[in-house]
Design goal:
4-stranded antiparallel β-sheet; 13 helices; about 60% helix
Amino acid sequence: MPLPRLRLPLMLIAAGLAATGCTVGTDYRRPELPQTAQYLHQAALGAREDANAAGSAELQQWWTAFGDPRLTHLVTVALAQNLDLAQAQAKVRQARAAIGAADAALLPSASLGGQAARAYQSVQTPLGQVLNATPGYDRAGSARELNVQASWELDLFGGLRREREAARADYAASEAGWAATRLAVAAQTADLYLSIQGLQARLDLARRQVDTDAALLELTTLLYDKGLANEPALRQAEASLAQARASVPGLDTAREVALHALDVMLGAAPGTYGDEMAAAGVMARAPRITAGGSPGELLRRRPDLIVAERRLAAASARTGAAVAEYYPKLSLGALFGSATAGGALFGSGSGQAAGVLGMRWRLFDFGRIDAQIEASHGQEAELLAAYRLAALHAAEDVEDACSALLRHGEQATLLAQSVQALERAHAASLAAYEKGVTSRIDVLQAGARLLRARDAHTQAQTASARAAVATYRALGGGWHAPEAGTEAVAAR
């Protein structure tokens, strides 16, 4: 039977072998991790009563819960322009391309090749002299050739299929990595914005404190000159003014650093959003947060945990690919074309064909294969430990963030009560001064105490709002969590 007539049966046999081939290696199953029934602070967080708390929002759009349009705008800009996020998206494209390459490795490949040549034989060489003496010899010659070549590696033992599993797991990890970067960008943008708000409020209070302490020093100096105040009181007033003035540069520097960091987070040069942020705004308040669900849900909601788990799945698949190296690899090859040295390229007798059944077996290389498999098992063990550690750190993040949110909220509430009490004391002192019952220095001292209390309250408010951001981030808010079973589908 001519070779071209054998092509179809050979291809059918190969397809049957590939379809019935086994897949060596262990099928991956996501490891179970021990989890508690609920968070330590879950009940306290649900029962949290904070008169200063803002509203609530869906976990996916958590930044809207602060009720601050400028914050929402900045987070939106950051998610559109941040360069870390652009890098993560590029990595997703690379991983998607790797899936295409892994899929293509399972399919036959074909190529078209051809060449045309024309040559002149020298008659001065020994060969040329002999040929030139031959009757009818033509020193000019030509050759043309056109071929279609095809090859197909039969994945009898599943090595290529395991590589495809690994590529798909890598792709799922890259997508989760993009989501983790997105979550981090939104959280860092909100955290910087809240920090800037707090620093601007504290700067305003510090400057007012400088004015108050300057007035106190002026009045104390006047009393000292008249012998109505002692020197310790004068020196105390000088020290208070110096401390108030010294706090301004530090706060201003911290504010500028935060502004520059926010600009970079938004994908802009430092100084771009400075004017926009200079406008005073109402301090954002920590929203109400309910840590719904169980710690076990973090395994599918936190993208960094999905990254760790998908990397483990990819390592498991690559171990299977390494095991497949124990077994022989079969491949089919074929060539069909036409060649001529002077006649018509597709003339009678110019056709040519070839078929190849190849085998490659690392029969005497099992020691190296053993080492590769052992290295793959070691990587699996490393990534399993990393996955378990990531789960522990995720639970730790939630507990720490919830604890900070509760404690800073309590502190802000107590300091608000202190501010209210000092406001009443300042008002009473001012009323007494207007009636001539007390001195102006008492009014100024009451005002200074009130400003210091407001500064402490502002710090507590800022810490509470930032703790809310940390809680949302720890809970994995800010992206679409995959449905249950998605990871398993991605591995197939």
